[in-house]
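User: I'll paste a sequence; please echo it back and then give the predicted structure.

Assistant: Echoing your sequence first, then the prediction.
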Amino acid sequence: MGRKLDDVLEGLGDATDLAGLTAAVYEMRDCYDVEHLVYHSVKSSGDQWAALTYDPTWVEDYTRNNLQTIDPVVLACFNRFTPVDWKRLDWSSRPARALLGEAVASGLGNQGFSLPIHGPSGHFAVFTVNHCSGDESWARFTGAHLNEILLAAHYINERALLIEGVGRGPNPSLSPRETDALTLLAAGRSRAQAAETLRISEHTLRVYIESARFKLGGTNTTHAVANALARGLICL
């Protein structure tokens, strides 16, 4: 799957519009052999933009009724930078339960895993993998593919920003955890040491690093650290 996924990511460079981005999302879904893959962008103005494999009728209903305002997935992702497992969210409210029931009835799987992406100029997006499976098999899948999904999410988002014509702001704002992660790496700590210092897993550390890299426009982690130092966002 790795080689095929690499081919899909490389092919993203040919996507010049929403149709091209959507085609790449479909190919990526097939690589992971899951029910659905979604890139959902919510702009600061409230406008939505998406490349996804959901049933168009469900998407139209979701958009028309502004369901993102009550969707526990979107609300959770908006307030954090780490991955969101749908099963760990609070679906106890009546609107949330109704939303989940309608989603499953519309062909969404019973499992979901979403990655929040916070970018320039108030840009916010969610990248989701959705599937039908038992809890144990889903935990194995997400555990095995978290890093790949994280990178795929940012590649898709970067391409989407280019298509939308959204530029990176000159002074990105890093979260405290992103700042801590880059500071430790700049000080020469390994990822394992940085994760231990912050008392988080290496998987979670990578989420912070990749989010910071994207905000800073870094081609890799070293480049992101250099940009952060040059802009005075981290100090040693």
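The chain has two domains: 2-164, 176-230. The CA atoms of residues 58 and 106 lie 6 Å apart.
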